[in-house]
Amino acid sequence: MLAVWIVLGLVALVAFYLVALYNGLVRKRNRVDNAWAQIEVQLKRRRDLIPNLVETVKGYAAHERGTFEAVTQARAAAAGAKTPAEIGQAEGILSQALGRLFAVAEAYPDLKANQNFLDLQAQLKDTEDKIAVSRQVYNDTVLTFNNAIQVFPAVLLAGTFGFAKREFFEIEQPGDREVPLVSFSPDAAPAAPAATPAAPPAADAPRDTPSA
Predict the structure, then answer these.
(1) Where are the alpha helices (H) located in 59-198, listed in sequence order?
(2) Cβ(84)–Cβ(90) under 8 Å?
(3) Which candidate, 97, 93, 84, places its Cα nearest to that of 40?
(4) CA-to-CA distance for 65 and 72, rounded, in angstroms?
(5) Do 54 and 72 touch, CB atoms closer than 8 A?
(6) What domains, with CATH codes, occur in the chain?
(7) 164 DSSP 8-state letter
(8) Is residue 29 within 8 Å of 145, Cβ to Cβ?
(9) Is the entire prediction scored with pTM above 0.85?
(10) Do the beta carbons of residue 86 and residue 58 sit within 8 Å?
(11) Model confidence over 192-201: pLDDT tens digits?
(12) How far apart are CA 110 and CA 101, in angstroms?
């Protein structure tokens, strides 16, 4: 009879552990979902600011049609992206397009002094700062969750319960990965040789001694 109670106790402990493990993974997954929702809020706010920003710049530089179209297309692509990796790449392209838009604005002092433009620029900067903070929080929660489902014994059960690795969110900036090239080719122009020091002046010839 004692053996039966011991077996039942062990079964209860294992069941309790599995329930606690499952609940812990659910909580970590929910934190990831909540952190991602915060990023989506800020990304939507950023995209909502862009049309007014474009219209304001148009009032001073209507001929910059290519720049405006690039921003509009990049905004649409960012809004249509689905996964964190796709969204990160699309948002990086949108950031580049916005950079070109602000470069256009630099050529128009009246535009740079426009209060509406300044307000939109400040709101966009504030939103991008919040996106950076939210991205850090999200990536931290993703790291915690991914670690939790890959360690023993959770790794044996995570797939069965539908827990899968989550993607990190990185805004792609192609220029950030460019590394300056240093050439060690023998074809490179050699350094100019050091100047040869000038020869010292010749000593004066000895004078003839007058004869007695």
Answers:
(1) 65-80, 84-105, 109-112, 115-150, 154-157
(2) no
(3) 84
(4) 11
(5) yes
(6) 22-174 (1.20.1440.20)
(7) -
(8) yes
(9) no
(10) no
(11) 444 445 444 5
(12) 15
